[in-house]
């Protein structure tokens, strides 16, 4: 599986890069340790600290050593637990509010270079001409080859209104392209919505932020003002990396009966054993009203399709899982990322914190999504030609040190099948050649299939699912034929 994109991040999102988190915030944890302190190991830590300060080739600041020790200790747990220094903590809080400073590109690593996965809509990178598939070879003239993704991201961060020059290699271009870009504060538009056809609406959530529930409620009221008799609504969660839990609860509650169970969590601590219901106190701020109160009652009954893909993670999976378990929506697309864990941010000082995995979350029927994901009711490829880029993306189960699914007990997680693993090279080339997909556009294949489903028209299922169904049909036909022969033998002969 060597072709898979190994690391994905968002320039400017700091420690929230790439994979969204279901987060809860709390004050400094003042809890007793679960057992006696390992004194021998603490002595070794002290000895190593002293050796480095006395024997290392250069003087090392003690504060830096201890900070790195804390960072390494937390990072050793799982891919989503992390120590947040002053800068990272500030960036995390800003991103949850829907804003950050940077270029606005989702990036990964390929052949030692930073590869642009996708520019964020209306970002400095998008306006500057950066395209999905571009390889960033130099930043301000300095070569990128050999740098880690984190090192490259740090070079691309900076203060608002500062200039950066990216040199990129682009397929079918003979010479490198140079793009001067100005860093800006980027405000991610959490919710978009429009009527895609008369009677059919599309609502897209790009990331679950603090304003998401309010923003979605406003958009839906506008849609119903245009057409009070909607025949179908598509909730688009593709490539939504997640975000805050209340946002996921509120979005789910908008479509479900009052007091419906949305998600539950379970961990070591008492406050990590919770059940979240479709009630105001679980999704609205303490001082505000209920953003869902004024939504039309018809929203609870409108036919609903939820679009998901491998980039749908965390809070997106909470929503998809809740609507699937309550049989409120048809989930259409490809298997989701599989991040079913909750991160709690514990402040250590006024400027630093630890983001720690404290619980797994479960769908209303008790399914754990961790390292497994949501399997759609209807498997539909990203394009008419196949799954393309989506097939090459890393999932939670591919991450080193990922938290296991407590329901598996040694059983491999359910994954979507592929015809041939060596087909990845062809898919990689296909992903490089095709234009970036505009979600909600006229060429959005999965959206078209969702509309077909509403209208009772044939839905083009993924080649894998179509093959599986054909095999199952052929097998059932063969079984029926075999049974018929047995019955013929048992029947009395005609004379």
UniProtKB/TrEMBL annotation:
Record-linked PROSITE patterns: PDZ
Annotated signal sequence range: none
Domain of life: Bacteria
SUPFAM superfamilies in the cross-refs: ClpP/crotonase, PDZ domain-like
Pfam families linked: CtpB_N-like, PDZ_6, Peptidase_S41
Entry keyword set: Hydrolase, Protease, Serine protease
Domain PDZ: 89-157
Residue numbers spanned by region Disordered: 465-495
Record family assignment: Belongs to the peptidase S41A family.
Protein's name according to its UniProt entry: S41 family peptidase
Species of the source: Janthinobacterium fluminis
